């Protein structure tokens, strides 16, 4: 009788299937965050995400890059998202890599996804690689994952009115207006523009992302 082999204790996919998920585009590889990659992500945040006089985020997490614990806070945020992830409410933070180097983060979120079939997106890239179309490419990647592989029917996004770069990405991909909100940003009122996208209005790229490792994640994501 052949001996029964034990599972590899070093294989995290057994208990955390997201560790095996990957989405590949012509220039990028997106994988859910891992601890080694998060340390590199914190370094990219320290390198700079936007000019100091701007604030593109609802939560001004990029303020205070010169304070002790900033980089650790970047990692702790991702750990909280990972710890809170469950089928009814999830936020998957994909580390965006090019040639093995972490460049930023692309987030895909879902609430009651099994019923609503809606996702949200958010992202950032280190300033050194902005302006090369990578933000568009990584958004296409998670939209393909959501629409073509998870069966999403709607994707939502939002950007402040003065965040021209993010708004251009949404317009380029086919998003349509979905209302406005007012928020307090650095002590002043700021207008947030919401947008929505369906599989029918999505302006698909000329390439098709490669998705591996998703089947093991479907129960966790409600897909």
From TrEMBL:
Domain N-acetyltransferase: 25-198
Pfam families in the record: Acetyltransf_3 (PF13302)
SUPFAM superfamilies xrefs: Acyl-CoA N-acyltransferases (Nat)
PANTHER family: RIBOSOMAL-PROTEIN-SERINE ACETYLTRANSFERASE
Protein name, UniProt field: GNAT family protein
Naturally occurring in which organism (per UniProt): Actinomycetospora chlora
């Amino acid at each position: 009788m052949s001996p029964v082999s034990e599972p590899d204790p070093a294989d995290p996919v057994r208990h955390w299937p997201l560790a095996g998920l990957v989405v590949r585009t012509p220039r990028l590889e997106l994988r859910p965050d891992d601890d080694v990659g998060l340390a590199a992500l914190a370094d990219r945040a320290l390198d700079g995400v936007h000019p100091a006089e701007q604030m593109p985020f609802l939560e001004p997490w990029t303020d205070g890059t010169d304070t002790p614990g900033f980089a650790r806070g970047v990692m702790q945020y991702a750990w909280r998202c990972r710890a809170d992830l469950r089928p009814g409410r999830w936020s998957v933070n994909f580390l965006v890599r090019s040639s093995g180097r972490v460049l930023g983060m692309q987030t895909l979120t879902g609430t009651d996804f099994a019923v609503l079939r809606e996702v949200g997106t958010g992202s950032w890239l280190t300033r050194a690689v902005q302006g090369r179309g990578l933000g568009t490419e990584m958004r296409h990647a998670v939209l393909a994952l959501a629409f073509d592989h998870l069966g999403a029917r709607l994707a939502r996004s939002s950007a402040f009115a003065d965040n021209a770069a993010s708004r251009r990405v949404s317009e380029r991909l086919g998003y349509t207006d979905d209302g406005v909100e007012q928020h307090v940003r650095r002590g002043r009122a700021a207008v947030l523009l919401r947008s929505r996208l369906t599989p029918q209005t999505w302006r698909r790229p000329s390439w098709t992302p490669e998705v591996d490792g998703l089947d093991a994640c479907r129960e966790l994501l409600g897909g």
